[in-house]
Amino acid sequence: MAAPITTPLTQALAEQRLTRDELRALMQRRNGPALLRLAIWLVLVTATGSLIWLARDSWLIWPAMFLHGIVLVHHFSLQHERVHYTVFRTRWLNDLVGNICGLIIILPHQFFRYEHCDHHTHTQITGDDPEMVPMPRSWGQYLWYLSAIPYWRTKITELARHAAGRLTPAERRFTPRSAEAVVIREARLMVGAYAILFALMTTGGWWAPLWFWLIPLALGEPVMRFIRMTEHVGRPTVAQMCDNTRTNIVSLPWRFLCWNMNFHAEHHYVASVPFHALPRLHEKLRGHVHVEPGGYVGAHRDIVNQLRGHG
Amino acid sequence: MDDGWQDLIALTDLHRGWVTRATLGNRVLAVHDTPGGVYVTAALCTHGGADLCDGYFDGHLIECPLHQGAFDVRTGAPIGAPATRPLKTFAARVLNDRVQIRLT
Fold first, then answer.
1. Looking at the DSSP assignment, which residues form a beta bridge with residue B61?
2. Spatial separation of the C-alpha atoms in residues B8 and B103, rounded to whole Å
3. CB atoms inside a 10 Å sphere around CB A298
């Protein structure tokens, strides 16, 4: 049996910031809210995709693709919620939708799940947190990360390595031995799917995926990098969840896009709480977690101030 | 106590339809009130060691609060990654409104 560990949730219960009854109420899962939100999501994706079609003969296609890309990269938020199995009460629905999201944003779902579990175990601990984005030490590093070039380089290399049947020692640390074959098969299936699509594009002259998916994804990813930086970058590199994570107060459209994951510190406290209950958990943990009232821009103001040595 | 059965917790102390922490000596156990009866398992997740009694419970499924790995409480079988090793289960019964378990 594994040795007992203290989770942030255990601490919150011990400190009576949450009662067991409150926790039980917050953790309840339903398929309804997620199906409704997903329906609206599909309408939104269709709408922004239609803008590209409408602007196809003018320079406006570029802002249209950027807008569509912002929506596309937020499939990360859907996928992330499904990694935690909190979106749907029906467990397999989480896997199904998570895998579809992974195909869209080129992020293998099972591997991301194992990696993300380790992120929750070792949040913001240098050398242990596999998702840690280091605090930039120069403007060059800051802008380079925001370009999303290093992100894509890492992810595409990772996918190719797994498809070739290899995992790094660091990846083996968080991937159960029995799941290595799953990670490799998943990468091969994804590479195979992309290869078939590429063949259809080149041999059939069917370039729609380029204009409606790949270019928008590339244009939108810097926005996702901008958002992902606000979660932990610039916060202390310590184990205390009340210090190492930011909750960002953002407007309703951004909350919709990120499935309430702007309440990131609350999510790290109790990862079993579904997206629709995070605002209620935010109220319960008020004063206990770090909240950035200025939202994503406020978080970057903090990061830039630290970068300039004023933090 | 007879035939190795030991008192664990009163039925009235269980969270109905949910998981309840109970102790027997130094042993910390999770008591699951399921639609099919009461089941008792070890309280710590076999993956990361988190306390399953703080986790989400649904039917016969207990989910770890840290990584959302899941187990079937009837058999202890892991049914969701990253849990891969089974959870220890204990024979349990209800007698005179008390949950009893047999440790062997």
1. B58, B72
2. 11
3. 17
DSSP B47: T
Of A9, A113, A178, the CB nearest to B65: A9
Quick check: A119 contacting B, CB < 8 Å?
Answer: no
pLDDT digits 0-9 by tens, A67-94: 999 999 999 999 999 999 999 999 999 9
Strands (E), A37-180: none
Domain of residue B68, CATH code: 2.102.10.10
Q: Which element (helix H / strand E) includes B34?
A: strand B27-34
Q: Which residue has the tokens 């968080």?
A: A174
Confidence (pTM): 0.92
* Residue B70 belongs to domain spanning: 5-102
> With contact defined as beta carbons under 8 Å apart, do B69 and B47 qualify?
yes
Q: How far apart are CA A122 and CA A273, in angstroms?
A: 19
d(C-alpha A161, C-alpha A158), whole Å:
5
Q: Which residue type does B10 have?
A: A
Q: Is A271 on the interface with B (CB under 8 A)?
A: yes
